[in-house]
Amino acid sequence: MLLKVCGATSRDDIALLADAGVDLIGLWHGVPGGPADLSPRRFAALARRCRTVAVPADRAAPEPVLVTFLRDPAAIGGAARAAGVQWLQLHGYQPPGVVAAIKRRWPETTVVKVLHVAGDVCVERPLLASYQRAGTDLFLFDAIGEGGQVGSTGLSLDPDVVIDLAEATRLPFLVAGGLSAANRSRYEKVAAHPRFAGADVDTAARDLTGAFCAQSVGSIRQHWSAAPDMEEVG
Ligand SMILES: O=C(O)c1ccccc1N[C@@H]1O[C@H](COP(=O)(O)O)[C@@H](O)[C@H]1O
Residues in domain N-(5'phosphoribosyl) anthranilate isomerase (PRAI) (predicted)? Predict the structure, then answer.
């Protein structure tokens, strides 16, 4: 299973996350006003750092992921390509046409489309087939905040809602939304699903000051790694 942690902003963040065994590191670009938003230059520098950071010989370097609210396929694909980044996380409400345009021009890209869930309602439910036809590689299920907040809500999804959504799709999926070491046992059914690809965390990876905490990330890794292994995705 893959562990993704979101919102790295420094070389030290990446060293800490790599050392803790994180597989995918989310780098924000095109998240206006976001505390972890990166300029194109900084985004490219940190993506390079992900690929070159020291990791034990038996582990791959973490994969940088462009996490974005951008909607313009050329801007999204252009930023990723300029930084040599293969993974895109389309957070927010980009329509299926954006996925299709990216996959047409950059077919080698792994596109993760976020599906936003409020309670037991997935906003994009009527569009699932369209996103699949467009070439989405993985879905990421995330909780919407009470005021419609998107990303890093710290709110957990009901595992039964996750399973229901997984069954309505045919792609591998990641889960986000208030995940932690402590609530891993609640997601037993989810982690055992044959298309469960991994967990995506922001809030629980940090301490009270908002900095990444090696101990918390290590503990999340340890608890969530108990999930059955996923076949290669992307
Ligand atoms: O972390 C953010 O603020 C953020 C901003 C813009 C897009 C995505 C963002 N994070 C995503 O939020 C979830 C996890 O959040 P949490 O563990 O509930 O705090 C995850 O998908 C991140 O990629």
Answer: 70-201
pLDDT digits (tens, 9 = 90+) for 95-143: 999 999 999 999 999 999 999 999 999 999 999 999 999 999 999 999 9
CB 34 near ligand 1, within 6 Å? yes
Domain range 2-224, CATH architecture = Alpha-Beta Barrel (3.20)
Find the angle CA(51)-CA(85)-CA(162) to the nearest 5 degrees: 100
**ipTM for the whole complex:** 0.94
Contacts of 153 (CB under 8 A, 6+ apart): 142, 143, 144, 145, 177, 178
> Atom 23 of ligand 1 has which residue's CA nearest to it?
6
Task: Give the nearest ligand 1 atom to 156 CA.
Answer: 18
Domain ranges of the chain: 2-224
Continuous H helices in the chain: 11-19, 40-52, 73-83, 96-105, 128-134, 159-167, 188-191, 214-224
